[in-house]
Design goal:
Blueprint lengths: L13 E4 L4 E4 L15 E8 L3 E3 L3 E5 L3 E8 L3 E6 L7 E5 L4 E9 L1 E2 L1 E6 L2 E7 L8 E2 L3 E8 L3 E8 L7 E5 L4 E9 L13 H12 L5 E4 L2 E5 L14 E4 L4 E5 L5 E5 L11 E4 L2 E4 L4 E4 L5 E2 L9 E2 L1 E7 L2 E5 L2
Parallel strand pairs: 3-9, 11-17, 26-27
Antiparallel strand pairs: 1-2, 3-5, 4-6, 6-8, 7-9, 10-13, 12-14, 14-16, 15-17, 18-19, 19-29, 20-21, 21-22, 22-28, 23-24, 24-25, 28-29
The chain binds FE2/S2 (inorganic) cluster.
């Protein structure tokens, strides 16, 4: 600290607050010239998160400066908030310290309204990104129209015009879609069942499946993929270790599922599987096994290589059938 004597005429003391300790200046009689006050400078760093930009990235500013900055969203994003919680896209910053700020953006959300005409239901499967109350902009959804017994699917109306019972829609604005079902005229007067054998079986089994999401009958395991227990299979490359039924169910790609014995060919562990690059790895001892058709290693056979035992599967609508024969 540096101090000079002040006697007599007006010469106010100046106290400058530095980041750590104050400096005190005063004047002496022969020192009536303006006192030189050192400028304090601070660094201001402003950045933008994914989905937008900022009108200034900041820089070095004097103590007391005011900076105006605007967060500018791009494309299908909206401004959410600054990293300090401020929610004004345009704001003024009073510089009194070093400042680091980030503008955060989020995807716009849009509602998808589904209507039904006739009798049936619509299965919604998200193919990418997620859903909160509304869908994030850019989300692709697979829609499957499923008529009840005695009705057939006719077509989609509204934002989609198609007669395919399975279709896809990408959300980039609010959408309203109607699934149109009509009475199946092929149902005879005596209400004999004209449905295909597969459709009949589907409807019969669907009615038997309870909250656990599966039904086992005569070495056939029927799995309702719309059940919560199997919901994770909406994602490509996701798998479910179904401990109750002793199988690993893999969503191989958009159309295909696979099922394997979940008993490790090494020493029989069932509950330590992870999956990547088309292989399942048992984390008990770190051995991994293929998902192909070649050499099959069987449950607890002390094998440390080969492919897992695979079961035939069949998919119909939202029903996966695993054949243990
Ligand atoms: S029991 Fe699976 S790797 Fe050993």
């Amino acid at each position: 600290m540096k101090r000079k004597e002040f006697v007599g005429s007006v010469c106010p003391a100046v106290v400058v607050v530095m980041m750590s300790a104050p400096l005190i200046y005063s004047c002496s009689r022969e020192d009536n010239d303006p006192v030189e006050v050192p400028l304090i400078k601070y660094n201001v760093l402003i950045s933008a998160g994914e989905g937008g930009s900022v009108s200034t990235v900041g820089g070095e500013f004097n103590h007391g400066s005011e900076i105006s900055v605007t967060a500018v969203p791009q494309g299908e994003y909206i401004f959410k908030e600054w990293s300090d919680g401020n929610t004004s896209a345009t704001r003024t910053i009073n510089v009194s310290s070093n400042i680091t700020l980030t503008a955060n953006f989020e995807k716009k959300k849009y509602p998808l309204t589904l209507n039904i005409e006739g009798e049936g239901e619509v299965l919604e499967e998200i193919i990418n990104t997620g859903r909160t109350t509304d869908y994030d902009s850019g989300t692709t959804i697979k829609l499957t129209a499923i008529p009840v017994n005695g009705w057939i699917f006719q077509d989609w109306k509204g934002a989609i015009e198609s007669s395919e019972s399975t279709t896809q829609v990408t959300i980039s604005e609010p959408l309203e879609i109607t699934a149109n079902f009509i009475v199946d005229d092929t149902v005879g007067e005596n209400n004999e069942n004209p449905l295909s054998e597969e459709e009949s079986r589907y409807q019969e089994v669907k009615a038997l499946i309870e909250s656990d999401g599966y039904f086992y009958d005569n070495k056939l395991l029927y799995i309702d993929l719309s059940n919560e227990n199997y919901k994770s299979l909406e994602e490509i490359s996701a798998f479910v270790n179904d401990m109750e039924n002793g199988i690993l169910i893999l969503r191989r790609d958009q159309e295909n599922y696979m099922a394997f014995d979940n008993c490790c060919p090494h020493l029989g562990t069932r509950n330590q599987w992870t999956y990547s690059n088309n292989r399942f790895r048992c984390n008990n001892h770190g051995n991994s096994f293929g998902t192909g058709e070649g050499f099959t290693s069987f449950c607890s056979s002390n094998s440390t290589s080969g492919n897992l035992k695979q079961f035939h599967v069949h998919i119909y609508k939202d029903m996966l059938t695993v054949d243990f024969n």
